[in-house]
Write a structure and sequence with these properties.
mainly alpha
Length: 533
């Protein structure tokens, strides 16, 4: 059982193509994001709860709303978790070769799912309960009881996830086969999430910059949320039981959750067994119609191949292409909100000591956003898998092949970066001087990142995973170091243009080590891949 749980942990959190350094960096990044989320969460709830103390029954209503929102998000997480645990073809193939019964396999997956969801619920719900308890001076038993809250919540979240996991899998399989539909869905989801992010950001800005959240507490809003909270099952019952010590409310929650979990488990087991039969039975393969190949030049064929990868491969659509579409809007929302926060309220006094620092903060943020998105398409050689030998035998120079591989995602990234900068300039979020300097610096930065990533790809050895340490460090450290340097220069009143020029010089210097004998080094490294692939 412990071996199965350990295997599921690797399946869910490590993946098959990440080295130890990437895992550590990914874990650190996830922890930083989680901490930032919790800090914002606590700040928002503390501000709102403090104001709600003056309004009868409003606290419980909003507390239920907050708990329900987090519960809904974690239910979506449980859905993805269940899909990966139960319907991973490669994992199930390995399991069937092991002397373990299907009952133990299912139980281990359920237990691991419970541990994961318990931890996630505790991490994101505990700050709410602690904040609530401190404001309303709850006794120590209140905090002790909170550790049982995720246990009761899991059966509902897990039940819903198990009930929907197979239809969810079928929907994903359908999207993989229909690329255009998949792309449209991803773009719609990306814009939808960006819109929700903008709404949440507006609330946060009003709290931090303007200290104004009265619009959240009008009579009509309170009435609507109070009515909706009655249908926020099972959180409404659990909130009443854990906060108001109403023990009788726990029974409807248990009945509903156990019922949903039982139905979901039976449905998931049925389709899991059906999925196993489909994986291992000798089914007739559908004949695929061969498409007529049109003659074209090698260069056009290579460009077409890279574009197909970016716009038809599910991994790229979710990690790169879809994010590119929302980059201009997302960049505007992030930079506009931070500019508002730093130029309003108490924080604006600090700008007197470091004038113009907002412009350099904006450039740093644009570098980070564009680089993070670009990293979704920098697996130039990894995506070729076993086709490296084929690349060597093609009647096209290695330089041309690698240039096309690097430049297609780079040109797309720069194009949308240009759109994002135009949006920021036209909306007067940044001035045109920042537009010119910032865009130039960002283009050089992305180009250097592309070259660094290429060297990492060409250093992959047989039976070893890609070491992405250098590109990861470059992505996050260079923008931050430049911002710190700009902060120091602004403090000493160095000219605005000089600070930008120094920044461009720093980024150019980071590219210099890779420019020396670039073509020869690239060709030598690429040829060495023949032995290691």
């Amino acid at each position: 059982m412990f071996s199965l749980i350990a295997k599921d942990f690797k399946l869910l959190f490590q993946g098959s193509s990440r080295n130890k350094v990437s895992r550590v960096l990914g874990l650190v990044f996830a922890l930083v994001v989680a901490v930032i989320f919790i800090v914002i969460e606590v700040y928002l709830f503390k501000s709102i709860f403090t104001k709600l103390r003056k309004i009868n029954q409003a606290t419980d209503t909003y507390f239920t709303l907050f708990l329900f929102i987090i519960s809904t998000l974690l239910t979506v997480f449980a859905l993805f978790t269940a899909k990966k645990l139960f319907f991973n073809e490669e994992d199930n193939t390995k399991l069937q070769a092991m002397p373990v019964s299907n009952t133990k396999i299912v139980l281990s997956k359920l237990f691991f799912m419970f541990l994961t969801m318990y931890f996630m619920n505790l991490v994101f719900n505990l700050p709410l309960f602690v904040t609530y308890g401190l404001i309303y001076q709850k006794m120590i038993i209140f905090y002790f009881n909170v550790v049982y809250y995720p246990v009761f919540l899991f059966f509902f979240q897990g039940g819903v996830a198990l009930l929907l996991v197979y239809p969810f899998k079928l929907a994903l399989d359908y999207l993989k086969k229909h690329i255009i539909t998949q792309f449209i869905v991803v773009v719609i989801i990306a814009f939808g999430l960006t819109y929700l992010y903008s709404r949440a950001l507006n609330i946060f800005i009003n709290l931090v910059a303007n200290n104004n959240i009265d619009s959240l507490f009008t009579t009509s809003v309170l009435s609507a949320i109070n009515t909706a909270s009655k249908f926020m099952v099972p959180v409404n019952f659990l909130e009443d039981a854990f906060v108001n010590n109403n023990a009788t409310s726990i029974f409807p929650s248990i009945a509903i959750s156990i019922g949903i979990f039982t139905i979901g488990l039976l449905v998931a087991i049925y389709f899991y067994n059906k999925f196993l039969q489909n994986v291992f039975s000798d089914q007739k393969k559908k004949d695929k119609k061969e498409r007529e190949l049109k003659q074209t030049s090698p260069t056009k064929a290579l460009i077409r191949k890279e574009l197909i990868l970016l716009f038809r491969n599910s991994n790229f659509i979710f990690s790169f292409t879809g994010l590119l579409m929302v980059e201009p809007l997302l960049s505007y929302l992030i930079i506009k909100s931070l500019n508002t926060i730093f130029t309003s309220g108490a924080l604006s006094y600090y700008l007197v000591a470091v004038p113009n620092i907002i412009a350099f903060l904006d450039v740093m943020l644009m570098m980070l956003v564009s680089a993070i998105i670009f990293q979704g398409a920098n697996n130039y050689i990894t995506n070729e898998n076993k086709n490296v030998r084929l690349m060597k035998s093609m009647p096209v120079s290695l330089s041309k092949q690698l240039t096309i591989k690097v430049f297609i995602p780079l040109i797309l990234s720069i194009s949308f970066l240009l759109i994002a900068y135009f949006v920021l300039a036209l909306t007067r979020t940044i001035n045109w001087i920042s537009f010119g300097y910032g865009l130039l610096m960002n283009i050089i930065f992305l180009t250097t990142l592309a070259v660094v990533s290429l060297f990492e790809e060409l250093n992959i050895k047989r039976n070893q995973e890609k070491n992405a340490l250098l590109s990861s460090v470059y992505t996050y450290v260079v923008p931050f170091l430049y911002f710190v340097a700009a902060l120091i220069m602004c403090y000493y009143k160095i000219n605005y243009n000089v600070v930008f020029l120094i920044g461009i010089g720093i980024v150019l210097l980071s590219l210099l080590p890779y420019s020396i004998k670039f073509k020869k080094r690239i060709n030598d490294k690429f040829l060495s891949l023949e032995v290691s692939n």
